[in-house]
TrEMBL record:
<feature type="binding site" description="axial binding residue">
    <location>
        <position position="38"/>
    </location>
    <ligand>
        <name>heme c 1</name>
    </ligand>
</feature>
<feature type="binding site" description="covalent">
    <location>
        <position position="34"/>
    </location>
    <ligand>
        <name>heme c 1</name>
    </ligand>
</feature>
<feature type="binding site" description="axial binding residue">
    <location>
        <position position="183"/>
    </location>
    <ligand>
        <name>heme c 2</name>
    </ligand>
</feature>
<feature type="signal peptide">
    <location>
        <begin position="1"/>
        <end position="20"/>
    </location>
</feature>
<dbReference type="Pfam" id="PF00034">
    <property type="entry name" value="Cytochrom_C"/>
</dbReference>
<keyword id="KW-0574">Periplasm</keyword>
<keyword id="KW-0813">Transport</keyword>
<dbReference type="GO" id="GO:0042597">
    <property type="term" value="C:periplasmic space"/>
</dbReference>
<feature type="binding site" description="axial binding residue">
    <location>
        <position position="140"/>
    </location>
    <ligand>
        <name>heme c 2</name>
    </ligand>
</feature>
<keyword id="KW-0249">Electron transport</keyword>
<feature type="domain" description="Cytochrome c">
    <location>
        <begin position="22"/>
        <end position="107"/>
    </location>
</feature>
<protein>
    <submittedName>
        <fullName>Cytochrome c4</fullName>
    </submittedName>
</protein>
<dbReference type="GO" id="GO:0009055">
    <property type="term" value="F:electron transfer activity"/>
</dbReference>
<dbReference type="InterPro" id="IPR036909">
    <property type="entry name" value="Cyt_c-like_dom_sf"/>
</dbReference>
<keyword id="KW-0479">Metal-binding</keyword>
<feature type="binding site" description="covalent">
    <location>
        <position position="136"/>
    </location>
    <ligand>
        <name>heme c 2</name>
    </ligand>
</feature>
<dbReference type="GO" id="GO:0005506">
    <property type="term" value="F:iron ion binding"/>
</dbReference>
Length: 206
């Protein structure tokens, strides 16, 4: 399992396009329309919407292109979302790069999480080989910072509710823009208790 994860990481590094150059200052102005859901500095106060502050620019760029692709193809390609699909259609490639540069330059604000289930830490750090669940730490790192070159996003300190929503979407394949279906494969093996515990633990990471 570890060898497979390593091989996929190498593949991702080879297949990713060159890093785009965005202008963070221009992105700050362009991102004003995003602030209602994601906050002025990318620290969303609404837990169903993700914090974008400090997220990798390349990951943000990919998601915005995937949202736009889904909107253009009626959900046949990319990442389908009724709100973000409409928002992304209004953005040019340069707009996407600038907005991504702005949010990635911001600092994520951590929120204190209490009563973290031990199950969440166990699954994040060690997975569950009896069920074929790979440890999250293998791709997202000890503090949930991710690996930009491999396309693995920063997830530490993210809203627990947002994480829960996305894990459920991966599980039922309503979200399918992950590399080689890796997240779908893992999420399908998680119980509702697993997802609840993992979301809380990941949210507590700083």
């Amino acid at each position: 399992m570890k060898k497979l994860a390593l091989a996929l990481s190498v593949l991702a590094c080879i297949s990713l396009p060159a890093m785009a150059e965005g202008n963070a200052e221009a992105g700050k102005t362009k991102a004003i329309v995003c602030s209602a859901c994601h906050g002025v500095d990318g620290n969303s106060m609404i837990d169903m919407y993700p914090k974008l502050a400090g997220q990798q620019a390349s990951y943000l760029i990919k998601q915005l292109h995937d949202f736009r692709s889904a909107a253009k193809t009626g959900g046949k390609e990319g990442r389908n979302d009724p709100i973000m699909g409409g928002m992304s259609l209004m953005l040019s490639d340069q707009d996407i790069e600038d907005i991504a540069a702005y949010y990635s330059s911001q600092t994520k604000i951590a929120v204190e999480v209490k009563d973290i289930p031990a199950l969440g830490e166990q699954l994040y750090k060690g997975g569950d080989m009896t069920r074929g669940i790979t440890a999250c730490i293998a791709c997202h790192g000890p503090q949930g910072a991710g690996v930009e070159l491999a396309g693995f996003p920063a997830i530490g300190g993210q809203h627990a509710n947002y994480l829960k929503i996305q894990l459920n979407k991966f599980s039922d394949t309503n979200r399918n823009n992950d590399l080689n279906g890796m997240m779908q494969d893992i999420a399908k093996k998680l119980t509702s208790d697993d997802i609840e515990a993992l979301s809380s633990y990941i949210s507590s990471l700083k």
